[in-house]
Amino acid sequence: MRVGIDARKIADFGIGTYIRGLLGGLVELGAGDEYVAFAPAGAPIPSGVEHVVIDAPHYSVRELLVVGRAADRARLDVFHAPHYVVPFTRVPLVVTIHDLIHLHQPMRNPLAPLYARTMIRRAIHRSRSVFTVTNAVKAQLEQELGAKNVLVTPNGVTPLRGTPRNSEEPFFLYVGNDKPHKNVDALVAAYASVPDARLILVGGSFDRFRGRERIEVRGFVSDDELSSLYRGALALVMPSLEEGFGLPALEAMAHGTAVIASRDAALMEVTGDAALHIDARDVSMLADAMLRVARDGELRAQLGANGIERARLFTWKRCAERTRDAYLATLS
What we know:
With 332 residues, the protein is α/β, with parallel strands linked by helices. It is built from 12 helices and 13 strands. It has 2 domains: 171 residues, Rossmann fold; 141 residues, Glycogen Phosphorylase B (Rossmann fold, 3-Layer(aba) Sandwich), CATH 3.40.50.2000. It has a 7-stranded parallel β-sheet, sandwiched between helices. It starts with a strand and ends with a helix.
């Protein structure tokens, strides 16, 4: 079986993590299949994966044509689009749709919801299988868009050893971008009621919070620095209004770090008993949860232990096995 994967976002966060993890998991299976990654020159393609150099502007008509022509030339059995933008190609298609946030939450670009709805519907219509990462999103795809053949292939996390290091300066950690649905303003408002701890923001510019007392803006950090932050944090706080999965929560759990998360269905599905769940719109409830975690070492330890155990359920090999089974079903 020869499978092509659109890997142009492989260096990104979110979808990039998914592409890197899936490709690594597929190679790990060692089933004798051939995998072809379509990505720009210099992209971090795993060993054992063929690299077809290609680049095209994201969210453009050109990408639909350029990627499609490349797929047609590559003698593929299946083409996998890891995002809802699927190319014009004669090759049988499968697609991963990670969430419907663009359809549910206010966007800074007023045209984004219309574009997303059009492309998601097109992807569902043209693909033989639709992958998503949680049962929560599967239900949305089926109920809201009438999607069929939706398969849940949860994200994985790289196995980690050890327990969190104690930090001389206690801090809470946020990891993610600064889009409205991430609800960072509510986090900062809640944090104002939490004494004797810093708040570290990672993953976005967060310019409006720079210079505020006890708030540290790190922006983008290396994997090693991020791992160190996870290990040192009192808790990861993820008060999102909506998520498709919540990779930072899983990463924190794998480090044995407590998690405070919203009651979003996908986050509750992923974190289970490894998180304190709060109403994302209730700032006082979020502040109370942060105070409770800061003051209760036994609670932090229990959440951390639960997280390590729960994170073992999420592996890229498991994701790859389910995905490969769907590739094979596409050929039958």
